[in-house]
Write a structure and sequence with these properties.
alpha/beta; Rossmann fold; seven-stranded parallel beta sheet; 7 helices; about 40% helix
Length: about 280
């Protein structure tokens, strides 16, 4: 397949892009986006079968792209170091890191809603597991990959944020007509996403006077087979009047990973349909 970005500032030809959470809803889109711009890929996720399936898909669409996959647990420092070592052994560098590995305690898809009806009764175990993956995992993954980037003094790191890391959740959109008790978006989700923004800014400042850039991409409200009631409620809260589609973030991640964003660091690229503008 022809590379639409060849010869442009968005060109990633022969660059090495490492993606955590690569088989997730957005992780897969990021992998396909980077491949479309010519990047070689190192993909990490907990799901080996899903990784192999994604590799086969990319190989069939982009036969000139080299894709390596490895099981990755971002809560394990050795696992993070192992996939960073894989990048070095196979490609001798990392040009861009897209960190999309995360967990999100959900109540939208048939889980026990009693866990999400009162802030004062939210389980500590769910709080801690989210912190372990979403914040400590990002810290460990950044440590391992930055060691590689430091050797060349350049690279782009992209963390994945949320509008709820910038503003409080609008809990009204989670209310179901037939519910006796209001369900709510847990506090830990906002805390983790706000913390990632802090980590983004810290690392950008830490790597001052180098060409290692650190930015955040903030998506919002990605439609994923949500029911009609939630979709309607969410859409009414945005300026564009709809939820986003997962492929609408491909251009943004290519921009952040490429030289097109060469003068951008410590920033947050917000693509939320206007949610935080209101």
């Amino acid at each position: 397949m022809n590379q639409a970005y060849k010869g442009t500032p968005f060109d990633l030809t022969d660059r090495v892009v490492l993606i955590s959470g690569a088989t997730g809803l957005l992780g897969k889109e990021f992998a396909l986006a980077a491949a479309s711009a010519g990047a070689h890929l190192v993909l990490g996720d907990l799901k080996r079968d899903s990784l192999e399936s994604l590799k086969s898909e990319i190989d069939s669409i982009y036969p000139s792209i080299r894709t390596c996959v490895q099981v990755l647990d971002v809560t394990n420092a050795n696992s993070c170091q192992s996939i960073a070592d894989l990048c070095e052994s196979q490609f001798h560098r990392i040009d861009a890191v897209i960190h999309s590995a995360a967990i999100d305690p959900k109540f939208e898809q048939g889980s026990d809603t009693t866990l999400f009806s009162k802030f004062t009764e939210f389980p500590k175990e769910l709080w801690q597991s989210s912190l372990d993956v979403n914040l400590t995992g990002a810290f460990l993954f950044a440590q391992a990959t930055c060691k590689v980037m430091e050797k060349s003094g350049k690279g782009s790191i992209i963390f994945l944020g949320s509008n709820y890391g910038l503003v409080g959740p609008d809990q009204r959109i989670y209310k179901k007509a037939d519910q006796a008790h209001q369900t709510y978006k847990p506090a830990v989700y906002s805390v983790c996403k706000a913390g990632l923004l802090g980590l983004t800014k810290f690392l950008a400042a830490y790597y001052m006077n180098t060409s290692i850039r650190v930015n955040m991409l903030t998506p919002s409200g990605i439609w994923n087979q949500h029911d009609h009631e939630f979709t309607t409620n969410y859409s009414s809260r945005t300026i564009l009047g709809r939820m986003s589609e997962k492929n609408e973030y491909r251009g943004a991640v290519i921009f952040l990973a490429s030289d097109a964003s060469s003068y951008m660091t410590g920033a947050n690229l917000i693509i939320d349909g206007g949610w935080t503008a209101l």
